[in-house]
Design a protein that fits this description.
193 residues; flat; mainly alpha
C-alpha cells in the first residue's frame, strides 16, 4: 500500500487532470484503484457494485478535478472520501429499492446498515493509512492476542513504547465510529483496570 503523496505531487496531479492528461488519470488509477475498490467492497460487500463505484469515482475525478482542494488534505484522503460517499449512496439506493414502499422499519434497517458499513470502511482506511509501527502493534494485539509485553518483545521495543503504539492505534481506530478513545494509559504492572 502506498503512503500519502506529498502535497506537491497532489497539486501537480490535479493540474495535469485539469489539463485533460489521460496519462495522469492512468497514473492516479494505478496508484489508488486498489484502495478505492477495497473501500467500496467493504461498504457494499458485492464485487460488481464495488467495480461500478470504482469506475464512478475515477469518472468523477476525471470530469471534476477542480473539486479537489490540496489545502484540505492529500489526494489519497479525498479519493477515500469520494469512494465512501459513492459507496454509501449506492448502498442506500439498492437497499431502498429492495424495501417495501412506506416501510419505516426497513428504512431504519437501511440506515443502520449504512452506519455499520460506513464505520467499517473508515476503520479499514484508518488501519491501512496508519504508520507501519502502529499497525504492527495492533496486529500483534488483535490478531495474535499478544499483550503489550509480548508485543514489545516481538517488535524489539520497550514496553512503554509498545503501550504508546497500542494506545495511539486504538485512539485512531476509535475515530472510525466518531468516538474518542480514553486517553488514560492502559493497565500495566501495578495498575488496576
Amino acid at each position: 500500500m502506498t503512503h500519502d503523496a506529498p502535497p506537491r505531487w497532489d497539486r501537480r496531479m490535479q493540474q495535469r487532470l485539469a489539463r485533460g492528461e489521460a496519462a495522469a488519470l492512468g497514473e492516479l488509477y494505478d496508484r489508488f484503484a486498489s484502495l478505492v475498490h477495497h473501500l467500496a467492497y467493504r461498504v457494499l460487500d458485492e464485487e460488481d457494485a464495488a467495480v461500478r463505484v470504482t469506475l464512478e469515482v475515477f469518472t468523477h475525478i476525471w470530469e471534476r478535478p477542480d473539486t479537489y482542494d490540496p489545502r484540505r488534505g492529500p489526494f489519497r484522503s479525498w479519493i477515500a472520501d469520494l469512494t465512501h460517499r459513492h459507496a454509501l449512496n449506492r448502498l442506500r439506493e439498492t437497499a431502498t429499492a429492495s424495501a417495501p414502499p412506506g416501510c419505516t422499519a426497513s428504512a431504519r434497517q437501511v440506515e443502520a446498515r449504512v452506519r455499520d458499513a460506513s464505520a467499517a470502511a473508515r476503520a479499514d482506511y484508518i488501519v491501512t493509512s496508519m504508520p507501519p509501527p502502529l499497525r504492527a502493534a495492533l496486529e500483534l494485539a488483535y490478531f495474535h492476542r499478544r499483550d503489550y509485553r509480548q508485543a514489545a518483545a516481538a517488535l524489539g521495543v520497550t514496553e512503554d513504547e509498545a503501550r504508546r503504539r497500542l494506545r495511539l492505534g486504538l485512539q485512531l481506530l476509535a475515530t472510525a465510529n466518531g468516538r474518542t478513545a480514553p486517553s488514560a494509559a492502559p493497565p500495566g504492572p501495578g495498575r488496576t483496570p
